Amino acid sequence: MFRIRYAKIIVSCAAFAAVALSLTLVLTHTGPAKPRPAPLPLVENPLSNGSYFTAINIHNPSFTDTIKFYKRAVLAPAESDTTAYPPHAFQTYSLLPGYAVEIDCADIISTLLDDTPTIFPKGFVTILAKEPLDVVGVYTAEPPPTTISSVSVIPGIALKMLPVVPRIEFMPAGTLAPGQGPTGRVYEYSAKFLCLPPPG
């Protein structure tokens, strides 16, 4: 009787040890070494090939007041680009009550950026106003056409609209230029832009 119980205890201990060893091997990942994934190649252009356009829509929600706002653009080059691209000067624009206007890539490149040379204009448009505005960034992306089995495939267009939430800043007199620009409490909108037309 005693020998039978002793034998059962030995068998139970052996089974428990086997289970513990198996769990230890699993938890410590013991076994053949798995190959590590190869590092991703460096990408010079962070965006895929295609066309990118930006349209920043501005609306005066007032029923009675004309709102003057100030707009400017600044480039955002890659960190490896050591060229200095300072923000351009602010330009003024007045919106009648209920009216709206759009700042598109043509306006950004030809007016706000002047003669700044760049292959892929991307950066920020800043808008200042004494009164609140409705500002929405509209971003369009279109991949280039592809050919599959001698059949030309035209991909779809991606469209996204993002409301731009203002920051409230306090601007002392003469911040933009002597005698120019808003003073006191100002609504500041900062919208991202991407402008890359199709090749050719």
- Could you tell me the mean pLDDT? 78
Instruction: Determine the fraction of residues in helical runs and give it as a percent range.
Output: 10-25%
Beta-strand content bin: 35-45%
Query: How many domain units?
Result: 2
Number of discrete helical segments: 2
Main sheet attributes: strand count, strand direction, barrel closure: 5 strands, antiparallel
Order of helices and strands: HEEEEHEEEEEEE
By secondary-structure content and strand pairing, the structural class works out as alpha+beta
Residue runs with pLDDT of under 50 for 5 or more positions: none
Any descriptors?
200 residues, alpha+beta, 2 domains, 5-stranded antiparallel sheet, 4-stranded antiparallel sheet, 2 helices, 36% strand
What does this structure look like?
Helix content is 17%, strand content 36%. The termini are far apart. It is globular, with a radius of gyration of 31 Å. It is α+β, with helices and mostly antiparallel strands and 200 residues long. The chain has two domains: 1-33; 51-194, no CATH class.
At a glance:
This protein has 2 helices and 11 strands.
What is the secondary structure topology, with strand pairs?
Blueprint: H1 2-27, E1 51-59, E2 67-75, E3 91-95, E4 100-104, H2 105-112, E5 122-129, E6 134-142, E7 146-148, E8 151-153, E9 158-163, E10 167-171, E11 184-194
Antiparallel strand pairs: 1-4, 1-6, 2-3, 2-5, 5-11, 6-9, 7-8, 10-11
